[in-house]
Each structure stands twice: as structure tokens, then as C-alpha cells.
Design goal:
The protein contains no helices and ten strands. By secondary structure, it is an all-beta fold. The strands form three sheets. It has a five-stranded antiparallel sheet, with no helix packed on it. The termini are far apart.
Length: 85
């Protein structure tokens, strides 16, 4: 996002939905406005999640494995180097 009044890049907290998005915008003056420009071609941040096939998900904190019924079969806590089963 770019603030059109200052022409500076702005980092926003955005929740995307199927048909749009909601953004939390700070520093809007009382009874005022702020014009932002959203560039759809801008690079999207890389996801911290890694899908390994259809039965394994890895995050920065956990490695999760599912069984054939899609129930948790293993959870590995990377920070504490512990495995839960």
C-alpha cells in the first residue's frame, strides 16, 4: 500500500476474504481521511507454512502430520524440541 499524500509505503494489517479485504489503518485524523493506493501487482509476502504432500504441514514453530483419516498423528514442537503423539 502507498499513502498518496506522502507517497510512502505503508504496512497494514489486512484480512483477505473471497470477495474483498478489510484493513486496519492507523493515524487517520479525526473527521479526516487518508487516501491509500493498493497495487495488486506488488509482491505478496511468502507464507511461513510449508505443505509436504496432503498429510504434513510445517510452520516456523511446529511440524504436524495427519493420518489417513486426517486426524493428528504427530505434532512436533520445534522450539522445545518435543514430539507429541
Amino acid at each position: 500500500m502507498r499513502d498518496l499524500s506522502t507517497r510512502m509505503e505503508v504496512q497494514l494489517k489486512v484480512q483477505a476474504y473471497k470477495d474483498g479485504a478489510i484493513a486496519f489503518v492507523e493515524n487517520i485524523p479525526s473527521k479526516g481521511y487518508r487516501t491509500l493506493y493498493f497495487d495488486k501487482t506488488a509482491a505478496k509476502p511468502e507464507s511461513p507454512f510449508i505443505l509436504n504432500g496432503d498429510k504434513s504441514l510445517e510452520t516456523p514453530f511446529y511440524k504436524i502430520e495427519l493420518d489417513e483419516n486426517a486426524f493428528f498423528s504427530s505434532i512436533f514442537d520445534k522450539e522445545n524440541d518435543e514430539r507429541g503423539t
